[in-house]
From TrEMBL, chains A, B:
Binds 1 zinc ion per subunit. SUPFAM superfamilies: HIT-like (SSF54197). This is Galactose-1-phosphate uridyl transferase N-terminal domain-containing protein. GO terms for molecular function: UDP-glucose:hexose-1-phosphate uridylyltransferase activity; zinc ion binding. Residues 21-30 have a biased composition (Basic and acidic residues).
Length: 354, 354
């Protein structure tokens, strides 16, 4: 996502020193993906004028926003709210998506066993929206750590509800912030999709982590070498710039203790993660000038038994959208990152939050 | 790529009728990828103002463009030009990329055999630019079919040169047009990268086509059912909207006779393909209002022996950038397409080119 043309605000100015390092190709062993690191790319010129900022033209008129408190009747049906017994003073709401990509009202279907050139499933699935705050003006990073933790607990609760549907194999939690990160709504929200299949990136990740476990006897994320890649640490989590980050300034927040499923998180860990997530978003906001961003929770298929997979370790990935992608990435599935993650980690480690 | 917010110019207005069809999940058997088709998504509102067009602020000052004729000295070194003996009247030039993602001047390296958490290759590889026309004002779709064919023959010639390097495993040919398709330069050009590894999307495609061949005894693209998906046909090629198109209005141009490597193309076929490619770009320009777009050539690893793989069939993929992507796609590798390809094919089939 994101417009093209040179490599967005913040990168070249932030990263003066390492632009003369030579290119390197690194493998992300968690996702089995190659990434090309090329600091020289950050210098290339653009003859398109500079691209849009995070929120170029946000809707100034809160009175038209269906996610705002008092506009509940303009939304698709509510699933639950926190606090659950609140009336006009809710903190967050989980609602159905009014324009869902998948539909909860049609029958799940299974694939024909024989090969066919046109394999098709019905569009059964769940697509929900998490309204993270009652007020239009508050972003996730403005909320206090416990409130951010409550957003995470809402994901947990909804995943546990979706697990009761045998046909749902995976739940993808994600957030889009800013137009070039794909957002169509400015009011702070995230989304959850319950899918009738395990998506390809998830299978690839689990296969890769399993292969690593079979070779080394260890979970790749339990063993992760933070060192130069460390950004911050809380009681139960670390945040790092991963060794083979796909995107510039990409951040992973990883639980310190092995856990294969995000929904195993408890209240205390959720508040702790809430604090670290807030800190990362604040640092990005300050250092990268309020960039558009996405975050995604990478967990395990929800029906997996035993519930603890020894090789699978969930994490939360945050991606500021600073550069666009082009035909190379669409064609190869391989990304070009102009910023070495050890440099990104240093910058983010040293941001001063007052 | 592309800004977010609703689903870009052209989609909802073009596709009135099928918006009430229910969602479907289809598998692309060539690439082993699931795609969610959800016409309802095209209707969702956006509170960001409408996004930028293809060339929002192109450089109006041609005298500053290094790709223009007369500015050859502002470019990285030339590799060859057509006609090869031309001086000031060249038709196209293949040059080195001045800000290459990979470098031809460093030693190739190979991976350590033992598992390591930080696998790294040196950034050896080739990154070239194909300047498609001497004049700033001409886009690829403005050139005559033989000139477009010459651009394709330049790709072929350069691939054949790169094949002589044992360390180069795959050559990705791609084009970015327009800022939200990633382009940083407006002058009509494409790019070629010679890679020291076979990229993940290529391995996945070849594995999937091989599996299909092993099961059915047939090449999936030789057997492709065009019917409702057909857009146009030339002597040696067909253009279709693929059954499980990842993107709205995505087009594949496929050689009618089995061929595993793009660089097997000859002069006659190149001119024929040039005509069909030009036609597809013209149709997109007219019907989708000059959208930003990418195209990619999907071929086989260049060192593969025997040279004809019975299951691998090259094709050219054209992707207009009408919608952005968000966290769902980054997280899952699975895309949501609001336009059924049979509807896109009908629209593109019926565009009248005068
Ligand atoms: N009144 C209402 N009640 C309930 N729900 C309402 C509503 N009004 C709007 N909505 C829903 O709210 C959601 C807001 O989501 P985002 O802003 O994160 O991005 P969106 O899903 O539009 O698309 C981005 O994310 C998806 C998934 O990554 C990408 O496919 C896409 O290209 C990108 O633009 C939309 O899905 C919309 O359907
Ligand atoms: N004087 C000169 N001589 C020679 N070469 C020159 C030059 N001036 C500029 N160049 C090169 O010309 C190329 C123009 O390429 P494009 O406009 O297609 O997109 P770019 O490669 O910048 O990035 C897009 O494509 C890549 C690959 O898909 C994505 O990684 C990226 O995010 C996206 O913006 C650039 O690569 C640039 O380095």
């Amino acid at each position: 996502a994101g417009g093209g043309g040179g490599d967005g605000a913040g990168i070249s100015t932030t990263m003066g020193s390492s632009e003369n390092r030579s290119a390197e190709i690194r493998k992300d062993t968690v996702n089995n993906r190659w990434v090309i690191f090329s600091p020289a790319r950050a210098r290339r010129p653009s003859d398109f004028k500079s691209k849009s900022k995070s929120n170029p033209n946000p809707n100034p008129n809160q009175s038209e926003c269906p996610f705002c408190i008092g506009h509940e009747h303009e939304c698709a049906p509510e699933i639950f709210r926190f606090p659950s017994d609140s009336t006009s003073n809710w903190k967050l709401r989980v609602i159905q998506n009014l324009y869902p990509a998948l539909s909860r009202d049609i029958q799940p279907s299974s694939l024909p066993q024989n090969p066919t050139p046109t394999p098709t499933l019905s569009g059964f699935g769940f697509h929900d929206v998490v309204i993270e705050s009652p007020l239009h003006s508050l972003h996730l990073s403005d909320l206090n750590p416990v409130h951010v933790g409550d957003v995470l607990l809402a994901y947990k609760k909804r995943i546990e509800q979706l697990r009761s549907h045998d046909s749902i194999k995976y739940v993808q939690v994600f957030k889009n912030h800013g137009a070039s990160a794909g957002a169509s709504m400015t009011h702070s929200h995230s989304q959850m999709m319950g899918l009738p299949f395990v998506p390809p990136a998830v299978s690839a990740r689990l296969d890769s982590m399993k292969e690593n476990f079979d070779q080394t006897g260890k979970c790749s994320l339990c063993e992760i070498q933070s060192n130069n890649f460390l950004i911050d640490q809380s009681t139960h989590f670390i945040s790092i710039a991963p060794f083979a980050a796909t995107f510039p300034f990409e951040i992973w927040i990883i639980p310190l203790c092995h856990s294969s499923h995000f929904h195993e998180i408890d209240g205390e860990k959720a508040a702790d993660l809430g604090g670290l997530l807030k800190l990362m978003l604040r640092k990005m906001y300050l250092q990268l000038n309020n960039p558009p961003f996405n975050f995604m929770i990478h967990t395990s298929p929800i029906q997996s038994t035993p519930s603890q997979l020894p090789y699978a370790h969930w994490y939360l990935q945050i991606v500021p959208q600073l550069t666009g992608v082009g035909g190379f990435e669409i064609g190869t599935g391989c990304y070009i990152n102009p910023v070495f993650p050890e440099d990104a980690a240093k910058v983010l480690r040293e941001v001063c939050i007052t």
